[in-house]
């Protein structure tokens, strides 16, 4: 399935609009991340990877914050935003209940999947930075896309892994999806039993996992498109390593949250 974003005969991104969105559900995800679910306006869509701006004009005036849409555009009814508790804005959000009114505006952003391409996808995420990548993975799985996907996902502790249960399910449902987890604060309890990788996503980890994935999937000659979302050092390392591996610069994309 491709998302029809054609405007007057030329391909473009979906038009943004502002709407009053009722919060219909709050889902506890990790100790400091919750998912907030809203009804979608009729005929409104987005491309996996894009974000919306959130406003609470009565409280913050024109001050706003951006949140990547974590759900798939194939969901006919809802959009999900997964938000980490941090500063002023997110503390306000934490006090809101189902039924509260939010002002949302979007979609925005060029960090989105090319939904007409067959390129394999390399996704690098850290913590809550998985949100735009999750939209891509959900979309690719629900549309039964043939695209090979490798997600390299870093977190501090097992309990911080956002969407943990769903990611396991998606990997079972989607034979083209491979997920590699790495933890930076393993602790003594899991030291000998944790089956994933340990430490931050660094140059060696990216290189080793990408080369292994390409070899296992016969992708040595393909030039995958990559999307990274997380701390700036991880994004800089990703660009450096992929350029060393002769990937094309136009196919290396990032989203910076702060
Ligand atoms: C395109 C885009 C998409 C985004 N998508 C998401 C998303 O899906 N989920 C989400 O939770 N956030 C997302 N963000 C970040 C979000 O917009 C806010 O910056 C965040 O929620 C913090 O807002 P706050 O008012 O609570 O904190 P602030 O009071 O603004 O925080 C104070 C300072 O902390 C820094 N900061 C904020 N959060 C963090 C953090 N977690 N780690 C390290 N430093 C931080 C900021 O740079 C700021 O200087 C996105 C940002 C962008 C630009």
Short description:
The chain has helices at 57-60, 88-94, 131-142, 164-173, 187-190, 203-216, 232-244, and strands at residues 6-7, 10-11, 17-30, 33-39, 51-55, 64-68, 78-84, 101-108, 121-126, 149-155, 177-183, 197-198, 225-229, 252-255. By secondary structure, it is α/β, with parallel strands linked by helices. The chain folds into 2 domains: 6-108, Translation factors (Elongation Factor Tu (Ef-tu), domain 3, Beta Barrel), CATH 2.40.30; 121-255, 3-Layer(aba) Sandwich (Rossmann fold), CATH 3.40.50.
Q: Describe it for me?
A:
The chain is α/β, with parallel strands linked by helices. It has two domains: 6-108, Translation factors (Elongation Factor Tu (Ef-tu), domain 3, Beta Barrel), CATH 2.40.30; 121-255, Rossmann fold (3-Layer(aba) Sandwich), CATH 3.40.50.80. It contains seven helices and 14 strands. The chain has a six-stranded antiparallel beta sheet with strand order 6-5-8-3-4-7, with no helix packed on it. β10, α4 and β11 form a beta-alpha-beta unit. The longest helix has 14 residues, at 203-216. The radius of gyration is 18 Å and the shape is globular. It starts with 5 loop residues before the first strand and ends with a strand. The relative contact order is 0.15. It binds flavin-adenine dinucleotide (FAD). Flavin-adenine dinucleotide (FAD) binds next to β6, β7 and α2.
């Amino acid at each position: 399935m491709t998302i029809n974003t054609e405007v007057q005969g030329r391909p473009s991104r979906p038009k943004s609009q502002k709407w009053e969105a009722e919060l219909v559900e709050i889902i506890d995800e990790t100790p400091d991340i919750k998912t907030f679910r809203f009804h979608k306006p009729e005929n409104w869509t987005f491309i996996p990877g894009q974000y919306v701006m959130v406003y609470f004009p009565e409280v913050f005036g024109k001050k706003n914050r951006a949140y990547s849409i974590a759900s798939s555009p194939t969901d006919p009814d809802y959009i999900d935003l997964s938000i980490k508790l941090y500063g002023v804005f997110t503390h306000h959000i934490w006090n809101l209940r189902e039924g509260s009114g939010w002002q949302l505006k979007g979609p925005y952003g060029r960090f989105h999947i090319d939904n007409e391409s067959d390129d394999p996808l390399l996704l690098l995420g850290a913590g809550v930075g998985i949100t735009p990548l999750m939209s891509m993975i959900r979309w690719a799985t629900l549309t039964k896309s043939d695209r090979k996907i490798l997600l390299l996902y870093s977190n501090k502790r097992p309990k911080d892994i956002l969407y943990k249960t769903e990611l396991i399910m998606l990997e079972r449902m989607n034979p083209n999806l491979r997920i590699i987890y790495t933890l930076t604060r393993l602790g003594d309890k899991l030291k000998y039993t944790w089956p994933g990788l340990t430490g931050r996503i660094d140059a060696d980890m990216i290189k080793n996992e990408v080369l292994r994935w390409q070899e296992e999937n016969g992708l040595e000659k393909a030039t995958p498109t990559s999307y990274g979302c997380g701390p700036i050092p991880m994004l800089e390392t990703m660009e450096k390593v992929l350029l060393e591996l002769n990937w094309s610069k136009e196919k290396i994309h990032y989203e910076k949250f702060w």
